[in-house]
Amino acid sequence: MLGIWAADLLGLSVFRERPLSAGLEKEVLGEQVVVQGILKERTEREENFSICLTHTFLIFHSKKIPINNLKIYMEELVALPLGTQAEIRGILKEIEGPSNPGEFDSKLYCETQGIYYQMSQGELLRYSRGYSRYQEAVSQVKERLIQCFQEIAGKHAGVFQAMILGDKSNLDESIKSQYQLAGIIHILAISGLHLSVLGSGLYRLMKRLGAGNGLAGVVSLMLILQYGVLTGESVATMRAVTMFLMGIGAKMLGRCYDLLTAMSMAAILILLECPACLYYSGFLLSFGAVLGLGWILPVLEAAFSGIRLLKPFLGAASVNLVMVPLLLYFFSEVSLLGLLLNLLVIPTVAAVLASGVGGALAGLIFLPLGKLLILPGRVLLELYDILGTLCCRLPFCSWVGGKPQLWQMTVYYGILILAVEGLRRVSREQVRRPALVRGLWVCTCLLSLNFLGWKDREGLRITCLDVGQGDAIVWEKEGGECYLMDGGSTSQSQCGIYQILPYVKSRGISRITAAFITHTDEDHYNGIAQILEAQIAHTTSVRIQKLILPAWKSRPKAYRDLEALAKKVGISVEYLKKGDVMVSGELRLRFLQPEQENDLEDINGGSLVAEMEYGNFRGMFTGDTGEEQELEILEELHPCTYLKVAHHGSKNSSCEEFLKRVKPKLSVVSVARNNLYHHPHPDTMERLRKWSSQIYMTKDKGAVMLWTDGDTVRAKGFQHKEG
């Protein structure tokens, strides 16, 4: 593992080498091409139908070029059995990585599955008559089990489906968020616990029925291998399967089973197959949990053997000491109440699994029997829901520590290794004051964990997030105050949940002091509304503390809906107009628009327009204001350092007179690639180039991040995307 990581840091090609050369990618990406491959997976959703091909070849100039696996979004439903060889035409595209800090890395996730490209507008040209009867049979069994869960498990069907079949397609996002906040999301992943219930249960049953070690072991091994295939062969599943196989193999051969040896062998096999897994959260979290149990737990049991009250907590503490940095790195927050809740969940989850498996198998034969057998599992899941909801309502449910830097994680793990090995050595020797040693050890671990949450809070940080066609700007100032200026998109689904919240949490922020909405176009407020709705549902640990709206006399429905939503959350609403001023320390905001007499037919013209001052730094935030309003405030404008370009670079904004007055040193355009409005307009870009020294567009740079201490200014894009 260290070798792969070191080689990657040195720039040596380990797993980042793509199947196609850079020159060939330029020729085929974005173009219509033909591919051939074997159908591996079908996924039908309300919004689309997709398939995955394995052993895929790109047909280019009569040559067949291998491109590994390929995800294809089809124009229409394709009813082909798995294992069919198909030829498909469509638009070949690159899979984009995250464009904002904290955002989920779908590119890396696809690489762990051997997928480097995707295809849209897929059209089936021809296919073979032959197919894999085994693959199709497994798929049909899985589909029947999913249907059975839908009929016998009620509202908990999605949870049973995720726990037992590894399929989260029907799992409600609110349940997933609730389980994550409560610290019990691990039960939704196939793990060693699942296999011990299924495989070890069968092994012991066969032994009781008189089977020998060999027969019981072989049958158990075959069952678990088939179960791994049925559940999708995820990294966590294959880790658990490999370790289970080694455990059963040890029993069959009369050998001792060593947890850390089995874990190491599983890691080696997975990384040999897919080195990209080294950076994948599923791999690191799965193996991290086992490492905690195999390495730290024996030390803690020896050191704290005389304190019976702590015994139930030692397993969870061992796992968390390894997992907390990883959880912060990938999710930016850690559940604080999970340690307590897992005291109930872990001992009872085996009953949920057994009940779910028994109910599903019985339901395939006789539905009423399936409903009866799954009832205990449903009762336990209902209990998990109630306790999880109670946990999520508490203000200290989770710690939003933010995403630590690699040097922080290196220091933490270095201290952890020294602390654990030191405690191991002390436990073997007789010390005069063992209580003092244990207390110092616990304090060292807690201080090290707190160190992971350190963030540089000096100066002012402004981040214009890439939310596609929309606006979302986050300000952070010293002291930890955070403000959100707009938050919405018409091209990104649920931008509040998938772009804004991950960024805010990655910065270790759990409180947004105020959210400004410049006007009520959907691409400026729907993400903020999503966050407020998540607050009501208790599925986020981030809280907006105040909502600020333009002081309009004529208020459209969206405006009234936002007021009602804020009231439901229990936060205050403030209204700002021309001439109002807000001051927070060195930060000063002066509002130049709107007038209170607004025109409902020109929502954009009623946008909040704010001038920011921070030392010698001056910024302009313009919403979707138009040329008419820009001309009205000309006399109040000053040259500025930073300009958030109005209306995504529309032709009717950022007029010549306005730009001549503000003369921005840095202009930021928040806009989606290939948007329907053809923003930014070429005329606007020409004017910006004339009056602005630097222009950043989110469609090219991803999130645009600026830092200033009031004098010095540093700006950069999160990524570079070829426009």
Automatic annotation (TrEMBL):
Subcellular location: Cell membrane
Any Gene Ontology CC annotation: plasma membrane
Chain coiled-coil ranges: none
Keywords (A to Z) from UniProt: Cell membrane, Membrane, Transmembrane, Transmembrane helix
Matches recorded under InterPro entries: ComA-like_MBL, ComEC_N, Competence_ComEC/Rec2, Competence_DNA_uptake, DUF4131, Metallo-B-lactamas, RibonucZ/Hydroxyglut_hydro
SMART domains with a match to the protein in the record: Lactamase_B
One Pfam family of this chain: Competence
Membrane topology label: Multi-pass membrane protein
Domain Metallo-beta-lactamase: 471-673
Transmembrane domains' residue ranges: 181-203, 209-231, 278-300, 312-331, 343-367, 407-423, 435-454
GO terms (BP aspect): establishment of competence for transformation
The name this protein goes by in its record: Metallo-beta-lactamase domain-containing protein
Organism: Blautia hydrogenotrophica (strain DSM 10507 / JCM 14656 / S5a33)
